[in-house]
Amino acid sequence: MASLLYALRPWIVLLLMIHTSLAKPLCHPDESSALMEFKRSFRIDTDQIRCVYPKVESWPQDGHGDCCSWDGVECNEANGHVTGLDLSSSCLFGIITSNTSLFRLLHLESLNLALNDFNSSSIPYGFGGLSRLRYLNLSISEFSGKVPADISRLSRLISLDLSSEWASLEMPNVENFVQNLTMLRELDLSSITMASPFPHVLANLSSLKSLKLSKCGLHGVLPVSIFQLPRLEVLDISYNGKLSGFIPEQQWGNPLKSLSLGGTILSGSLPSSLSNLSQLAYLDLQRSKFMGQIPASLANLTQLSYLDLSVNNFTGDISHWLGNLARLNYLDLSDNQLSGQLPSSFENLTQLVRLNLSFNNWQCEIPNSLWELKGLGYLDLGRNNFSGTVDLHKLKNLESLLLDFNNISFVSKPEINATLPKLSTVSLVSCNLREFPRFLGYLKGLEWVDLSNNKIGGSVPSWMWNGSRETLMDMGLSHNYLTDFENGHINLPMLTYMDLSHNLLTSFVNNQINQSLPMLTYLDISSNSLKTALPSPPPLAVYYNISNNFLFGEIQSICRARSLVILDLSINRLNGGIPSCLGNMVSLSILNLGENKLEGMIHHDYPKGCALKIIDLTNNRLQGPIPRSLANCSMLEYLNLGYNQMHDRFPSWLSKLTKLKAIILKSNKFHGPVETHQNQFNFSNLHILDLSNNGFNGVLPSKLLQSFHAMKVIVSQDQLEYIHTSQRLPQSLDTAIAIVAYDMKLMNKGTEREYSKVPYALMGIDLSNNKFEGCIPDLVGDLKSLISLNLSNNILTGSIPPSIANLTVLESLDLSRNKLSGEIPQQLAQLTFLSSFDVSHNQLSGPIPRGSQFNTFGTSSFAMNEGLCGSPLPKKCTAVGDNIPLPPSPLKEENDNDSIFDLDWKVVLIGAGAGFFIGVVLGNLIIDEKSRWFLYYSKMMAKRWKTPRRHRIIRSRARN
Ligand SMILES: *[C@@H]1O[C@H](CO)[C@@H](O)[C@H](O)[C@H]1NC(C)=O
Ligand SMILES: *[C@@H]1O[C@H](CO)[C@@H](O)[C@H](O)[C@H]1NC(C)=O
Ligand SMILES: *[C@@H]1O[C@H](CO)[C@@H](O)[C@H](O)[C@H]1NC(C)=O
Ligand SMILES: *[C@@H]1O[C@H](CO)[C@@H](O)[C@H](O)[C@H]1NC(C)=O
Fold first, then answer.
1. How far is the CA of 867 from the centre of ligand 2 (A)?
2. Cβ of residue 201 lying under 6 Å from some atom of ligand 1
């Protein structure tokens, strides 16, 4: 009997199924027509990125049949009413209005319209009528505007998700909104702008399992009671940048699995009771204000797979807890103050894929067990003081290796099996390297390598440079192995970025100055000791910097690179002419050939649409005029032709280039009057004009001065930033932006000093050492933001205009060696920033102003003016009226404030200078998806940074 029953069982089941399906009522016609109407109110747009499958397309065209069987529709088995509608990711495009047929589905308990495109329309009023709703998901669907308040009437809701990707929705009164939603288990309102204090009422929703309020603009204090919600498993309140509070020391009763508090201003230390959270798998506290020791009890969080404590102020030792967390897959402790030891062994951390310990204070040895973590894909130990020997040969999954600023060495024997097929990014900045790490020669996938700021001397080996057979054999590799390399020639076929700057390199093996790095777009070998001819640039080079070496010979080979955007060959011994191909490089934006021995005329023909922003040809032997075609370079901001032998009239046509900020023609053979009566000038953005040491004559060019509109507005201290231009780099570096700041030599108390950055507020005019004659026009007093004015050594006559007293930020005034007469205007004593003043060698008379800065100038400032009297000169003033009283000095107090230029900038005389400072901010080249917005890798380098202080590579991240 028993066996018979067993045999019959499948039949019984089948019969039952038929029975129920027969008994199931069909859907109600009003509901099926409501569904059809809803369907027809949208267009299907399968191009949406979130479109997976257009469910409504499978619904019958005529709307006949049982709607309960339609894709995405669910009905009540007993009465046939539609209770569920799931059209998520269904490619819907259109608008839902408040008379939508959707609101006729009064029996709906579950509605999911997530991941469609409602075209920035607002969420309609009317959901509140669907009073049976328990589950409502409208997330990531391009809604905008205010969340209608009637949703808050849905007191049966268990799950509500209105989160969006962009902050396009607003909820002005969240406290009211959630008040009656007491059944909620899941609430996600991420990216809805609330701009309110944290809603305390949430702490009453004791059913909550998941609460997500990321990026809501919440402020105030996070109530501790949130952490006490008894069923809470997921809490995400990250990126509410004004939300403060702390994590309480408490008995954690709840089953928390995921805790995200990053990007807030939560502070304090981590309580050791956190270790009660035995199910915690995800902990993200990055970019907040936490501090103190990380409690050793974290060792008990054995389920933890994701731990991000980066960019806080944690201190102390991690060795007592880290080694235990065997499930860790993502660990980021970067940007803290951690020190002491690493765990004695990484043996347990076999799941690690990403490890970032950079920017801390470790000074210890790296345990060898780290090199056993076969799964590692990203390793950043940079900016510490780790020591030890790096052995990579087991890290077959490694993609990025960053060890900057440590004291490390590499296992010296080349391992035949050492290919690391995935390794594409290697950064070994300032690692005390004395030779090229040999493992680099094996990296066929290498795209990005930075070896700058080391002590690598001698020749660039050909396995780095052009991959010839000979040097591979130098490396002790067998011929068999050679076949592994593409054609046995090109070692680094993928290399796009190489920085070897600031080393001690002298040459290239076998004097190979043609390399075959086919993909290289960024090459920096600046600040080495290369004594060779100019290596020809890689054919795809966008950035080529080989400044500050001892290169000699002509620069014709530069024409090989047609895509250059930034070219810097400055400070070498290059000679010959400037090749005319430079004029045809349509993308060239920054050109620096300064401080070489280049000669001849500049005869390139700049085409229309010329992209040059910076031209620096200073200190060469160039002759002839400035090419008129430069007027086509409408982007030009900086032109420095100083210290050459150029021979031309003042290039008044430069006035067409309205972006020009600095013109430096110092020390050439320019001549003639600067302006004639038909000249019109419009140098409205000019900050710096240096025409000194030329043969200009005629009257001081007052129309020219009048056109310097930027100099007529005082730049407030808030706006104190450096003059720079930014330049996007194309091609494979398309995430990089080069920031180029002007670098100038400036006279400081008679000595020329170099500044790698020029503050935006630095405005100066230097017309000294010419043959200008006539009076100093009154309108000089309009150039209110001038910091420095030098008119010395001309043939100026007349008196010093009292309007100069309007130049309230003036720090340096030199009118010496002219034929000025009359008195020094007493008003000049009001110039409280004036720290350098020279009127010597004129024909001035009368009393020297007293008070304020004038008490600090020595006799040399006034020497050789027979008629001057009073302190500091020995000659007493005797004539009536000569002994004037001290002028009132209302600005006296300001004098005690720091000058905006601080120490270094106290005295600034414009000199000519060469060069500029280049920093490159690289985008996501080495950055993972998650933190793209917050992490960036910025690499600053400046040529001639010889001392350790200036010799730095800055990798910085925005701290909040
Ligand atoms: C919450 O419910 C109470 C009682 O039903 C009601 O009086 C109140 O208006 C509701 N609040 C909101 C914001 O809907
Ligand atoms: C880890 O948990 C165990 C048992 O729950 C406890 O005895 C131990 O003290 C905890 N360790 C730390 C470091 O808190
Ligand atoms: C980190 O903590 C130290 C000492 O407590 C403090 O001086 C420093 O300002 C803090 N740094 C940050 C970025 O909060
Ligand atoms: C590895 O895990 C075991 C077991 O939990 C533990 O005893 C050991 O101390 C851990 N090793 C390190 C280096 O922390």
1. 90
2. no
Q: Output the pLDDT for position 496.
A: 86
> Residue 589 in contact with residue 613, Cβ under 8 Å?
yes
Distance between CA atoms of residues 71 and 52, nearest Å: 14
> Which residues are 724's β-sheet partners?
741
Pocket test for ligand 2, best of 277, 297, 298, 317 (most atoms within 8 A of CB): 297
Counting other chains too, the contacts that 528-531 makes at CB distance below 8 Å and 24 or more residues apart are 528/500, 528/501, 528/502, 528/503, 528/504, 529/504, 529/505, 530/505, 530/506, 531/506, 531/507
User: What value does the mean pLDDT take over residues 826-849?
Assistant: 92
300, 320, 324: which to mutate for ligand 4, most atoms within 8 A of CB?
324
Whether 179 is in the pocket of ligand 1, judged by its Cβ within 6 Å, is yes
Fold category of 21-143 in CATH: 3.80.10
For the chain, the domains span: 21-143, 630-869, 900-959
Average pLDDT over residues 927-949: 22
What's the predicted TM-score (pTM) here?
0.80
**Per-residue pLDDT, 716:** 63
Q: Which ligand is nearest to the CA of 177?
A: 1
Backbone angles phi, psi at 338, to 5 degrees: -75, 145
Give me the mean pLDDT over the 863-884 stretch: 80
For residue 156, what are its two tokens? 């049966």
Closest approach atom of ligand 3 to CA 313: 1
Looking at the DSSP bridge assignments, the partners of residue 939 are: 920
Q: Judge if the beta carbon of residue 265 lies within 6 A of ligand 3.
A: no
Q: Are the C-beta atoms of 371 and 395 separated by less than 8 Å?
A: yes
pLDDT digits (tens, 9 = 90+) for 166-209: 889 999 999 999 999 999 999 999 999 998 999 999 999 999 99
Q: Which ligand is nearest to the CA of 302?
A: 4
Q: What does the pLDDT average to over 734-760?
A: 51
Q: Which CATH architecture fits 630-869?
A: Alpha-Beta Horseshoe (3.80)
Give 391 Cα–ligand 2 centroid separation in angstroms. 35
Q: How many A from CA of 311 to the centre of ligand 3?
A: 11
Calpha distance 567→458 (Å, rounded) = 25
- Distance (Å, rounded) from C-alpha 773 to C-alpha 757? 34
Structure confidence at residue 911 (pLDDT): 25
367 lines ligand 4 (CB under 6 A): no
Q: Do domains 21-143 and 630-869 have the same CATH topology?
A: yes
Q: Which residue has the higher pLDDT, 881 or 72?
A: 72
What's the rounded Cα separation, in Å, for the pair 795 and 793? 7
Q: How far is the CA of 928 from the centre of ligand 3 (A)?
A: 28
Residue 722 confidence class, pLDDT cut points 50, 70, 90: low
Q: How far apart are the first and last CA of the chain?
A: 77
Closest CA to 809 of 781, 836, 787: 787
Tens digit of each residue's pLDDT (9 = 90 or more) over 787-823: 889 999 999 999 999 999 999 988 889 999 999 999 9
Q: Mean pLDDT over residues 749-759, rounded?
A: 52
Q: CB under 8 Å to 669, separation ≥6 — which residues?
A: 645, 646, 647, 694, 695
pLDDT over 90 (residue 140): yes
Q: How many helices (H) and strands (E) does the chain have?
A: 9, 64
772-776 own/partner pairs: CB under 8 Å, 24+ apart: 772/696, 772/697, 772/698, 772/699, 772/700, 772/796, 773/697, 773/698, 773/699, 773/797, 774/698, 774/699, 774/700, 774/798, 775/699, 775/700, 775/799, 775/801, 776/700, 776/800, 776/801, 776/815, 776/820
From 252, 274, 275, 293, mutation site for ligand 2 pocket: most ligand atoms within 8 A of C-beta: 275
Q: Atom 9 (ligand 3): residue with closest C-alpha?
A: 313
How much of the chain, in percent, has pLDDT values that exceed 70? 81
Kindly state if the Cβ of 291 falls inside 6 Å of ligand 3: yes
Sequence-ordered alpha helix ranges (H) in 27-183? 29-40, 174-179
